[in-house]
């Protein structure tokens, strides 16, 4: 029979089973292996939580991946139902289908199948499993296999084999909503119930909008950051961490020191985004624990000082950065030399630079312009909302025209376009249009039609 027709018949059979949930659950122990994947897909997309939980308990394959599956409503409920199916601590299923579920991958990966092709290895193998941590299921199984090959068997090893390790891969994007907090608590309880047998692997963590209620900032400082550090302690090979709108005002408290300690253990971290962290004159504490290979650093609204910029220019991370965002920090209010030095250090790698609303004046921009021109790999430059005049903007364009990799520039509206600079409602649209026309003409004159210059007002 044609493969596509076979798939269609399996999908029809799955939908037929879902029409009677109690019967479908009872039939799972005798369900043919070929029906598990189409039934799981149909149940996931249809939001059949009870069937999902029951299916995971008797899943006849070594791994299960959400892959391209997605639901717009009740996401947390669906994911929790899947996790609830994990046997914690893991136990042997009475079903006779051989290897049972050891790796549950809830990340939405477009290139991932629902299950991996099984091989003849003596321990579970999965192309998506964690391979970096010494606690990963792959390394634990390799160690156990070596013990068995050596013939070492005692009561301790028998006890360990009774609690087979399992792995849960998940990307987390948490807000300050009650439901998000409930999900975090749910995850923590599952890890704690496993007594070490469940390995939580998170490679992308975002925590957003934590400062929505300023009246509880102190509570968030002492409470939720400890939640973050607890979660960081349980995540492995995190390469991207984003913490937005956490109004953390003290770098002296125990929770911040704990946060730095956890952060320092993320040896593979490449991307760090923090905003609303009060880091004035404290950036050295953060940089001290970050890996030198960090290539993305975004610190908007962190109260950075020129001293912090000096520290950054002297750090081991400076010569590796490809994306740097220091917007909304008044780093030019006193001295521009630290930033000039920083540009010299990042000139060999920097591709994306944002320094909007940093109080960059004509004199400061003119001073750092030679160093900026040396950033030969720069592709994106954004320095909007800075008090720049048209002559200096013209000079900047002429200097940067020779940077052939630079394709996109977001520039500030010159101060003469405002009745009162950067004051809402005082922008003169006619003057702005004249500036835009001049910029376009200058780009054509230097034959850089491939370069786009825009303002935030466009």
UniProtKB/TrEMBL annotation:
<protein>
    <recommendedName>
        <fullName>Leucine-rich repeat-containing protein 14</fullName>
    </recommendedName>
</protein>
<dbReference type="GO" id="GO:0005737">
    <property type="term" value="C:cytoplasm"/>
</dbReference>
<dbReference type="Pfam" id="PF13516">
    <property type="entry name" value="LRR_6"/>
</dbReference>
<keyword id="KW-0433">Leucine-rich repeat</keyword>
<dbReference type="InterPro" id="IPR050694">
    <property type="entry name" value="LRRC14/PRAME"/>
</dbReference>
<keyword id="KW-0677">Repeat</keyword>
<dbReference type="InterPro" id="IPR032675">
    <property type="entry name" value="LRR_dom_sf"/>
</dbReference>
<dbReference type="InterPro" id="IPR001611">
    <property type="entry name" value="Leu-rich_rpt"/>
</dbReference>
<comment type="similarity">
    <text>Belongs to the PRAME family. LRRC14 subfamily.</text>
</comment>
């Amino acid at each position: 029979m044609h493969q596509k027709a076979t798939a269609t018949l399996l999908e029809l059979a799955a939908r037929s089973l879902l029409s009677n949930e109690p019967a479908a659950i009872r039939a799972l122990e005798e369900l043919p292996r070929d029906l598990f994947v189409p039934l799981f897909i149909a149940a996931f997309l249809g939001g059949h939580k009870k069937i999902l939980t029951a299916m995971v308990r008797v899943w006849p394959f070594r791994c299960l991946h959400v892959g391209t599956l997605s639901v717009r409503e009740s996401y947390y409920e669906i994911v929790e139902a899947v996790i609830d199916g994990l046997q914690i601590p893991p136990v042997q299923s009475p079903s006779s289908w051989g290897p049972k579920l050891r790796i549950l991958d809830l990340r939405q990966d477009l290139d991932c199948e629902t299950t991996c092709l099984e091989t003849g290895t003596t321990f579970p193998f999965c192309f998506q499993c964690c391979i970096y941590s010494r606690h990963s299921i792959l390394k634990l199984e390799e160690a156990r296999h070596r013990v068995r090959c050596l013939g070492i068997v005692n009561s301790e090893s028998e006890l360990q084999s009774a609690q087979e390790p399992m792995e849960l891969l998940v990307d987390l994007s948490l807000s300050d909503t009650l439901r998000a907090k409930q999900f975090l608590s749910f995850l923590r309880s599952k890890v704690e119930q496993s007594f070490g047998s469940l390995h939580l692997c998170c490679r992308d963590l975002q925590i957003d909008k934590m400062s929505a209620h300023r009246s509880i900032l102190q509570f968030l400082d002492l409470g939720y950051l400890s939640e973050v550090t607890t979660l960081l302690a349980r995540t492995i090979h995190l390469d991207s961490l984003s913490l937005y709108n956490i109004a953390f005002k003290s770098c002296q408290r125990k929770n911040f020191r704990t946060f730095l300690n956890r952060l320092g253990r993320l040896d593979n971290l490449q991307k760090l985004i923090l905003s609303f962290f009060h880091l004035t004159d404290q950036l050295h504490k953060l940089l001290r624990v970050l890996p030198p290979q960090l290539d993305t650093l975004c610190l908007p609204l962190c109260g950075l000082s020129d001293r912090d910029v000096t520290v950054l220019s002297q750090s081991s991370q400076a010569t590796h950065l490809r994306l740097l965002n220091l917007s909304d920090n008044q780093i030019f209010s006193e001295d521009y030399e630290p930033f000039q030095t920083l540009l010299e250090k990042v000139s060999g790698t920097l591709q994306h630079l944002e320094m909007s609303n940093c109080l960059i004046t004509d004199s400061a921009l003119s001073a750092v312009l030679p160093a900026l021109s040396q950033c030969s790999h720069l592709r994106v430059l954004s320095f909007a909302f800075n008090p720049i005049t048209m002559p200096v903007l013209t000079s900047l364009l002429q200097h940067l025209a020779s940077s052939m990799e630079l394709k996109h520039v977001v520039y500030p509206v010159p101060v003469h376009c405002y009745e009162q600079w950067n004051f809402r409602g005082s922008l003169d649209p006619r003057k702005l249009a004249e500036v835009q026309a001049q910029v376009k003409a200058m780009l054509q004159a230097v034959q850089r039609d491939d370069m786009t210059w825009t303002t935030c007002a466009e």
